[in-house]
Amino acid sequence: MIAEEMVIACCTDLAGKVRGKAFPASQFEKRTKRGIGWTPTNVQITCFDAIAESPFGSLGDLVLIPDRTARVRVELGENVPVEHFALGDIRHTDGRPWEFCTRSILKGALDRLNRVAGLQLVGAFEHEFQFRNATATLGGAYTVDGFRAERGMAETLVAAMRAAGLEPDTFMKEFGAGQYEVTMGPSRGIAIADQSTIIRELIRSVAHAFDKEVTFTPIRNPSGVGNGAHIHLSFLKDDKPATWDPTGKHELSRAAGQFIAGILKYLDAVVAITAPSVVSYLRLTPHRWSAAFNNLGFRDREASVRICPVSELSDVSKAAQFNFEFRAGDATASPHLQLGAIVHAGVQGIEEELATPEATTEDLSLLSPSALTERGYVRLPKTLAEAIDRLLANQTVTGWFPGGFVDTYAKHKKGEMSFLEGKSQQEVCSLYEQVY
Length: 436
Ligand code: GLU
Ligand code: MG
Hints:
Oligomer: single chain
CATH architecture of the largest domain: 2-Layer Sandwich
Largest sheet: 11 strands, mixed
Structural class: alpha+beta
Helix content: 25-40%
Order of helices and strands: EEHEEEHEHHEEEHEEEHHEEHEHEHHHHH
Bound molecules: glutamic acid, magnesium ion
Radius of gyration: 21 Å
Strand content: 15-25%
CATH class of the largest domain: Alpha Beta
Number of domains: 2
């Protein structure tokens, strides 16, 4: 059959979906200037394909402009169509960034970090996912046998990552039924979120080529394990590592300590963006190694932010290895929006000159509410509705985003919630499993 290769210009949206339009690949250069047409109300399409209340109605026109630095072309093999897409920015037709473009929002946050503190962000997302319809084999957690079962897919994925300019790191059989985890090397600035988007697409695409289906849903059933999207972060100042200070509290540099303090101070409002689905809140509960409080952890995987270990044996310097990990996020969020919110919260902490937080090593769920308050901890929202209310109520947080953004975001999420009204928890879980 005859065929002409196409490339998809796409972006992550408020639903955490990657949406776009394809055009002949031969037109790529032209399209990096003129873009492709895009519709404002698309931003209110929920993950369930219902359109939430939209301030735009049927009106308006935008352009989605593919970015050649975020272009991916991978030939997976014979008889498998090529994977070819490019992430981009949504702009008004006069070229101004659109207020609801998640990538432009992240760029704004990264600019603020640079302006306020002279820092450049370095980081990588680490993704957990599960094979759907996998017959759960008992006793597989972290095993060689568990890896062996998916060696073919893992090796194709590593080659695809390499071809897409991502740095392969590890692939492992995680704890849960059919659950695996992929990590990759760090990148800088906007590429941190771009690469998270790219790896999710590559995992889906490679799984598909192996006749398998994966889900990144935060949790498939309330008694099972969660799938987190953990975000590792550190800083460069004038191209030199700027996160580690051997004399600082927990060996964090002053700016890194303030940044973490900002994340934790605003987390109960920001979590509506970093963990934005109804089922996200089944995962953000104590004793499942996710995050339930706004705490910093040292060697503690039940913390919203964890200072990660460094290896004395590594060939990489301690200063360059030193990083912290944000754990209160999942893959139902747009990586761009998620990271944008985290960066704004962190920069807010730098501006407010907050003190580096104490680190917890104990089980916070055992503390009484008054003991928690005394120590400055809050239980994160227990439902998406509660998270959205806290987001709307926090003027500092809403002020980080373009005018009208948070209000529209809340309407989007309300549309998502009303689609689920009257459904049982298991039905809700299974719907999210299908769409993420
Ligand atoms: N699956 C856990 C989560 O939902 C994380 C486990 C781990 O520390 O790797 O975040
Ligand atoms: Mg893990």
